[in-house]
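Report of the visiting student (M.T.), summer placement. My assignment was to run the structure pipeline on a short list of targets and document each run. The first record concerns Dinitrogenase iron-molybdenum cofactor biosynthesis protein.
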Amino acid sequence: MSNVEVIAIPSMYPGGLEANRSGHFGRCDVFTLVSVNNGEVQSVRTVANAEHSEGGCLVPVQILQQAGATSLVVAGIGMRPRIGFAQAGIEVLVGPGDTVGEVIAAYQDNQVRPIADSDLCGGGHGH
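After the run finished, the structure tokens were exported:
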């Protein structure tokens, strides 16, 4: 039985497994999407983030929903996009890693967890 997950990670340009993870969710250059099937990386692709504008923190929700993301691993995120992702059925997780590849390794090693209220940002600095 196939268990494909599409994990999105906010990334610095150009994205990919070697790219640095972006600590600022809303202002990342791209999202790297990693398809994992039964724990093994199957494919890696990127989608551009939209320019962050007032009220634009929900645009990435639409981008990632259209791209087929099933989960998002962040360093931090605000309440509005967190709610938007929940409504879109995309699980928001938090975990370690400086590069996209390190984040995926942490995901595979069960070192990520659902984001808690204490992890949320108050806004103003672009997560």
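Residues 51 and 62 are 13 Å apart (CA to CA). The chain has one domain: 4-118. I thank the supervising group for their guidance throughout the placement.
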